[in-house]
UniProtKB/TrEMBL annotation:
<dbReference type="InterPro" id="IPR037923">
    <property type="entry name" value="HTH-like"/>
</dbReference>
<dbReference type="InterPro" id="IPR020449">
    <property type="entry name" value="Tscrpt_reg_AraC-type_HTH"/>
</dbReference>
<keyword id="KW-0238">DNA-binding</keyword>
<protein>
    <submittedName>
        <fullName>AraC family transcriptional regulator</fullName>
    </submittedName>
</protein>
<dbReference type="Pfam" id="PF12833">
    <property type="entry name" value="HTH_18"/>
</dbReference>
<feature type="domain" description="Fe/B12 periplasmic-binding">
    <location>
        <begin position="272"/>
        <end position="535"/>
    </location>
</feature>
<feature type="domain" description="HTH araC/xylS-type">
    <location>
        <begin position="170"/>
        <end position="268"/>
    </location>
</feature>
<dbReference type="InterPro" id="IPR002491">
    <property type="entry name" value="ABC_transptr_periplasmic_BD"/>
</dbReference>
<dbReference type="Pfam" id="PF01497">
    <property type="entry name" value="Peripla_BP_2"/>
</dbReference>
<keyword id="KW-0804">Transcription</keyword>
<keyword id="KW-0805">Transcription regulation</keyword>
<dbReference type="InterPro" id="IPR018060">
    <property type="entry name" value="HTH_AraC"/>
</dbReference>
<dbReference type="InterPro" id="IPR009057">
    <property type="entry name" value="Homeodomain-like_sf"/>
</dbReference>
<dbReference type="InterPro" id="IPR018062">
    <property type="entry name" value="HTH_AraC-typ_CS"/>
</dbReference>
Length: 536
């Protein structure tokens, strides 16, 4: 079938100079893919299921006739509705050019393809078989199968029309965004989509992950935030502008959506505070202060990106190790920020340039604990009383969770471990150590000799530790994920006491590797839910 989409001539010409190297293929079944950094090219092909794929900052609603390509250095992740059971082929490969000319790989992001039969699925399955093969010949055959797969894709690229139902949903969603101030009803929106109200409710939630009414509330509240910051209008007038005739009902909906009342929100937003790291952002959120600027990224600060990107006007790069600091400084120039709060990880030139923009307050990261850091930041932003109230409430919650854990676990021990590449580190972060201490958890016998071992423990060494409960953090980068895929079904791993008794819990780097008040509260909730069950 002839292509309906002509690639740029330069991109097609690059095919004469490209060498492809197949690395791995696997079928991921029934699980979310946490946002992770990829070190090679990655092709995702959806065998079945629906959901949302995120490549760096770009999110795509999964289409049935499309493939998705991520490049080295990008991050990718996948999420789906609870009732879905997705199956995804994940294929990794490398490329090399036989020319010194600067060429680009012709495929990136979402690529629509013709699906004439099941050729794509058959080739993906063959790649998985080759990758699992025990002989060198089977693995070698994978190279030719991958070449065939790549040729098939390049020969079947096209513009894919959206399905009628999706187009109808998109139309009504756009209508909500432009007519949010009107009195919209499900019946009205369903008529626009030319389906029944009951089916519309179900389809909207399945398509966008939330109900149409919840989305309308989200749009109205986000617009109210903009009106509140751009004018001195009365709350009553703002409520009317976004579609609420009752000022008090608007306040209730705003507080339900944001967590604080419109009055408190406006008070907190009058000062343009810059949170220059995720740690500072976590401290400010504990104080109910929304910063003007903060690092947001679907991998490096995933929770904050998902929940607060609409609330924070200026998004700084959240890339690891602050490698994009010059980009961040450039973004802040002209922002008229009132103050910048940062940790002491700044380099001298970075700090000097920031001080030209606004006063810089530096919080020592390792010389004080997160409680002291919270109180220091509270002094800077004039929220000392709020910090005291928050800490008192947190300590009372810790005491309650500690008691629940005693009742649930008795004398059984708990081990918290992080896996990086092929090594395991026990309580590697200060936040993990603090949580273990505050909850007075029991450690496995003889654990002291395994702490702070340079380079971490091997799987064989970990197997010697008799842990009743194991909380495992798997760092989301390619080499670590490959190692996890190798060992998770191995006899040695399956024979771990916690694994045998189904007491293994996979914990996310966010919040377990962040050090802030807000992250501590989220860790507390996470460990209570995992070890006690969510019965509170």
């Amino acid at each position: 079938m002839p292509n309906e989409l002509c690639l740029e001539e330069k991109a097609l010409a690059s095919l004469d100079h490209i060498w492809l190297k197949f690395r791995s293929a696997q079928l991921l079944q029934g699980g979310r893919l946490a946002q992770q950094l990829v070190s090679s090219y990655c092709l995702l092909v959806f065998k079945q299921g629906e959901g949302t794929i995120t490549l760096d900052l770009q999110s795509y609603r999964v289409l049935p006739d499309a493939v998705y390509v991520a490049a080295p250095g990008q991050t990718l992740g996948y999420d789906y509705a609870a009732e879905e059971k997705p199956e995804i082929y994940m294929i990794e490969f490398d490329i090399r050019w036989d020319t010194n000319d600067i060429l680009r790989f012709p495929l990136s992001g979402e690529i629509a393809v013709h699906i004439e039969n099941n050729t794509l699925g058959v080739l993906c399955e063959q790649l998985c078989v080759c990758h699992r093969g025990q002989s060198a010949m089977e693995r070698f055959r994978g190279q030719s199968v991958f070449q065939e797969l790549f040729f098939w894709m390049m020969n079947h690229i096209r513009h894919l029309p959206k399905a009628d139902s999706r187009s109808a949903m998109d139309r009504t969603k756009t209508y909500i965004e432009s007519h949010f101030q009107e009195s919209l009803t499900i019946e009205q929106l369903a008529r626009m989509a030319e389906i029944s109200p009951k089916y519309y409710v179900s389809l909207f939630k399945k398509t966008y992950g939330k109900t149409a009414i919840d989305y309308l509330t989200e749009v109205r509240v986000n617009m109210a935030k903009q009106f509140m910051l751009q004018s001195d209008a009365r709350l009553k007038d703002i409520a009317y502008q976004v579609g609420y005739n009752d000022e008090f009902y608007f306040s209730r909906m705003f507080k339900k959506e944001v967590g604080v009342s419109p009055t408190v929100y406006l008070k907190n937003r009058r000062q343009k505070v810059v949170a220059y790291s995720a740690t500072i952002l976590g401290q400010l959120l504990a104080l109910k202060i929304m910063p003007y600027a903060a690092p947001l990224h679907p991998k490096w600060t995933s929770y904050y990106y998902q929940n607060y990107r609409a609330d924070i006007p200026l998004h700084l790069s959240g890339y690891r190790f602050n490698e994009d600091w010059e980009t961040n400084v450039g973004a802040l120039e002209g922002s008229q920020a009132d103050c910048i709060i940062a940790t002491d990880q700044l380099n001298p030139l970075e700090k000097e340039r920031l001080e030209r923009i606004a006063p810089v307050h530096v919080i020592p990261l390792h010389q004080s604990d997160w409680r002291e850091q919270l109180q220091s930041i509270a002094q800077i932003v004039g929220a000392a009383d709020e910090a005291d109230v928050w800490l008192d409430r947190y300590d009372r919650k810790v005491a309650l969770v500690r008691e629940r854990l005693r009742e649930e676990l008795g004398n059984q021990n708990v081990l918290i471990v992080s896996m990086f590449k092929n090594r395991f580190r026990i309580l590697p972060t200060q936040g993990m150590k603090d949580m273990f201490r505050d909850l007075q958890l029991t450690a496995p016998s003889g654990i002291e000799r395994h702490l702070n071992i340079r380079g971490g423990l091997s799987l064989e060494a970990l197997a010697l530790i008799e842990a009743d409960y194991l909380l495992l953090n798997i760092q989301q980068e390619t080499e670590t994920l490959h190692y996890w895929d190798q060992i998770k079904n191995s006899p040695l791993w399956q024979d771990l006491k916690a694994v045998r008794k189904n007491r293994l819990h996979i914990i996310s780097s966010d919040p377990w590797r962040e050090y802030s008040a807000y992250a501590s509260e989220r860790r507390l909730h996470d460990i209570e839910e995992r070890l006690c069950g969510n019965r509170s």
